[in-house]
Amino acid sequence: MKQRIFYLDNISCVLILHMIYTYHIANSCGGFKPTVIAFISTTLSFFMSWFFFKGGMMHKDTSTKLIFQRSARRLLVPFVLFLLLGLLLDGWIQSTKSIDFNVVSFIKGEIVTFLLQSILWPTGASWFLLSLFVARIGFNVLHKRIHPIIITIVFVCIAYAIYIMNCHGWGFLIPGHNLHLDIPTFYMGNMCHGLAVYSLGYYLKEKQFDRIIIVIALALFVLKYFIPSEIDFRANNPSGTNFMLSVLYGMSGCVVINNIFKRICNKRFPVVTYIGCNSMVYYLVHYPVMCVTISLFWEPFADKELWYKFLVLSIIVTIFLIIAEYVFRIKKMRFIIGG
User: Fold this and answer.
1) Spatial CA neighbour of 29 closest among 335, 242, 316, 312
2) So what's the pLDDT on residue 170?
3) How high is the pLDDT of residue 2?
4) DSSP class of residue 23?
5) Can you tell me whether residue 35 is helix, strand or coil?
6) Which of 287, 289, 288 is nearest to 316 (CA)?
7) Keyword set for this entry (predicted)?
8) What pLDDT is attached to residue 254?
9) Kind and range of the H or E run holding 174
10) N or C: which terminal CB in the chain sees fewer CB atoms within 10 Å?
11) How far apart are CA 6 and CA 269, in angstroms?
12) CA distance 320 to 28
């Protein structure tokens, strides 16, 4: 049985709960951002970078064929299954809301959406699975010939170049849909960014605990409170802030939280460690529950205050996460989440 690294599981719990409640649910409730949630969001803004960074730390040097086989089971299978689930849920939502729902038009629209975004909206969080798959394979091919730091620098620059090209609207209109397909697509940017952070995680697996690395990371981490900059990792977009600063802040956050948790939380905490160990369940399930609830069952809460919406949606999502936790304990169901 694989030995668990408790501090990584504990970090995973903290960041997955932040992602679900103080990021996705809070933003879905009309931008519910009281001071506490705003501070948490700023502090943990590196959360998406960390999951790529952790992937690099856990990377095992082996053949690309073996990496592909393992990653396909762990990442591509759940990605495809949740893509199909997204198709079904979006069909249910649109057919419920529209009296002239047309299956052919719907399918065409979903194909266009997939080309534009690499996901379908009700299961949108699954973008990470495809990007991590690309990062794993890409890194395994490249690092045998290129130093990990060079990989990090080059692919951050490529991600930035993609962002600039997207800002200038490079691409073409999709006939009949009046939609612009960026070339390269923005998700190629998050794949490059993901590969860069993955490579850095591999390189800093042990070095991140050296004093000089800690000091540099901590200085960058503190700087973001004075010069704010935050990137939407999936969209590869810093939303008007500085792209490179956002990337550096994300990387520094990975090093800072790893050092803190390794020193004070490197042991098993029954609930926390368990959630971190099984974070894939919560990651994949929360988003479709949230989307369907808001799309079809939200009318009674439309006029309620933001804190009330946040509380209700949090309770609903939590109930379904508990159910999902029991469902995916069944051995025959584990393949759905890459188990």
Assistant:
1) 312
2) 83
3) 62
4) I
5) helix
6) 289
7) Membrane, Transmembrane, Transmembrane helix
8) 98
9) strand 171-174
10) N
11) 8
12) 17
List Cα–Cα distances, 154 to 50, 125, 197, 233, 252, in angstroms. Answer: 19, 26, 11, 17, 18
Token couple for 168: 């200038």
pTM more than 0.85: yes
**Number of other CB atoms surrounding residue 265 within 10 Å:** 19
Instruction: In whole angstroms, give the CA distance from residue 196 to residue 183.
Output: 20
Per DSSP, what are the bridge partners of residue 182? 171
Encoding tokens for residue 90? 């979006």
Q: How far apart are CA 110 and CA 112, in angstroms?
A: 5
Q: What are phi and psi of 171, to 5 degrees?
A: 150, -150
Q: Is residue 181 within 8 Å of residue 116, measured between CB atoms? A: yes
Cα–Cα distance between 196 and 165 in angstroms, integer? 19
pLDDT at residue number 1 = 44
182 sits in which H/E element? strand 179-182
CA 88/CA 291 separation, integer angstroms? 13
Residue position matching structure tokens 């893509």: 83
Which residue, chain included where needed, has tokens 């729902």? 101
pLDDT at 177: 64
Residue 324 to residue 251: CA distance in whole angstroms: 32
How far apart CA 17 and CA 283 sit, in angstroms, is 9
Instruction: Give the angle subtended at the CA of 148 by the CAs of 8 and 159, to the nearest 5°.
Output: 90
* pLDDT computed for residue 150 by the predictor: 98
pLDDT of residue 49: 98
State the pLDDT at residue 211.
97
- The secondary element (H helix, E strand) that includes residue 17 is helix 6-17
Phi, psi of 155 (to 5 degrees): -80, -25
Q: 306-316: per-residue pLDDT in tens?
A: 999 999 999 99
- Which residues does the chain have with pLDDT short of 50? 1
